[in-house]
Amino acid sequence: MQPNGTLRIAIQKSGRLSEGSLILLKQMGLEFESYRDRLFAQCRNMSIDILFLRDDDIPEYVRDGVADLGIVGSNILDESQVPVQRLLPLDFGFCSLAIAVPEQSSLRNISDLAGKRIATSYPFTLARFLKSKCIAAERVLLKGSVEIAPALQVADAVCDLVSTGSTLRTNRLTVLETVSRSQAVLIGKKDPMAKKQKIIEKLLLRAQGVQEARKYKYIMFNAPASALEAIKKLVPGCKRPTVMPLADSGFIAVHSVVLEETFWDVVEQIRACGGSAILVSPLEKFIR
User: Fold this and answer.
1) What is the pTM for the complete model shown?
2) How confident is the model at residue 1 (pLDDT cuts 50, 70, 90)?
3) 143/81 Cα distance (integer angstroms)
4) Domain check: are 171 and 190 in the same one?
C-alpha cells in the first residue's frame, strides 16, 4: 500500500468531519483524488497517503503507528482516552455533547437525573461528567439512534452530540446540560519517526497558515495622509500596515489585514477617518 517512509494521514471516511478534512488537506497543498468507497489515496505531489477510516478507529491507528497523523473530533479523543498528541485544534466540526430530555419531561435540573437512565454512545465521558456533579445515574449504552431512546422508554434522557439541534427538535428533546464542546483536531503519534518529523512540521505550518487565514480579511483603501497615525492604530496589520503615496500628494493607499470578528467596526472607523474606495478580499493562507 505504501513505500517505506511514506507519511500517512487518517481522516473520517464519511460523516460530519469528512468534507472539512478534505478541504483542509487540499488547502494545505496536497494533491489527491477522493472517491466514494475508496480506502486510501496517494498524493501526487508529496510522499503522503490519505487513509479513509471510521472516526472511532482513527486514534488507535495513530497510536499504533499505522497512521502518522489524523483528523478526528475531540469528542472521540475524550471518550477513547487513546494516548496521542493533540497537535492543533482546527476550527471546524464544532458541536457539543449534551444531555437532553423530552420536552414534556419533569426533569428540569441536572440534579433530577439522579437514579434515572441516560442513553448514550459516550459512556466514559458521561461517567466522568456525572461523577464531577456527584450524580448517580444508570448509563444505557447505544451505538446509534440514541435520540429515540426516551420515546421507546429505553431511557429517561440522552447524552449525545448536538450540532444544529435539528435532530433534537425532530425528536422533541431539549438540552438540559452541556457536557463538553468539541471540534476537529489534528493528532499525531507520540514519538514519531525522526525521518518523518520534518514533513510533519511542514504540514503543521501549512495547517496553521490555513487556519490563521480564516480569521482575517485583507483590506485596501485610500485615505487622507493626515489621518495616517489614526489609521495605524485601526489597522496595525502584523506589525505595521503597508502605506503607499497616491498621485494626489494629500492621499495615501493603505493595505493591511483585519480580524474578521472586528471587521465591520474597523471599516466604520476607517470611513470616519476619511477612508474611501475600501476593497476587501478573503485570505487563502496567512503565515506569520
Assistant:
1) 0.83
2) very low
3) 18
4) no
